[in-house]
Specification:
By secondary structure, the protein is mainly alpha-helical.
Length: 307
Amino acid sequence: MWALASVFKELGQWLTKSRFKVQAAATLLTNIHLPNFFTGKLYQGNGKMVCVPGLNCYSCPAASGACPIGSFQAVVGSSKYKFSYYITGILILLGVLLGRFICGFLCPFGWFQEILHKIPTKKFSTKRFKPLTYLKYVILVLMVFLLPILVVNEIGLGEPFFCKYLCPQGVLEGAIPLSIVNSGIRAALGKLFTWKLGILLTTVGLSIVFFRPFCKWLCPLGAFYALFNRVSLLQIGVNESKCISCGKCAKACKMDVEVLKTPCHGECIRCGMCIKACPTQALAFTYGLKAKGGAQQMEMKEKENII
């Protein structure tokens, strides 16, 4: 048990230090068919039957799997089905296992926003815009679930409202690269593309000065995973005996989470910035049933299952 705990602890420290590399690797695996960018063709293999964990457009030429939000909307918007137990089950499983760790480590669009945020310019806090964090839950319920079911055409088909009218990832990964190499698609671009391009450019601009604005305010996938942050097996634990209440963890958190008060807050993406900032190593990733404690802080010992 001691050897296993030591391995978990080293793994957690490596993840925290190497998060940017992990994000890059996750993005590459999610979009592994890179030659398709030059041919303008979509991968149509069996991998497209499986949902990737992060926000990644199905129409990206290099995409190795399906976007969970897009796939869910395709099902609920069909004339035959009004709910997808398969996709919902996958998302619930991922939420219980990892929570918003997926946002912090495995989401390509989250990584894209962080790259933009590294551009040297003045940065601004999003704490004053905290009420906007609830907007993504409205988008999840309204645009992802209700509208595709309730607003249908004459043959009973609903539109993928979030993917079609709001998601900037579809323009970034799908419309732009496909239109570059396909003259037919390029000629068909119209007002909807202009609208979505405007959303993408706005997201790009905001990402430079704000940390992950789309993740904080608009992403329905992040909203879904956030519902499981308090019960997920992966948590951030606080060793109160080591904590000196210096406040460095809260200052380091770019998701505006009061780490000591609510270490399993729904906005926490498990990025590990608070762990790196702690001078006494009072914070650490924990995994397993013992880690599930809602907002209650955990007293961690060296021989517990600590990552």
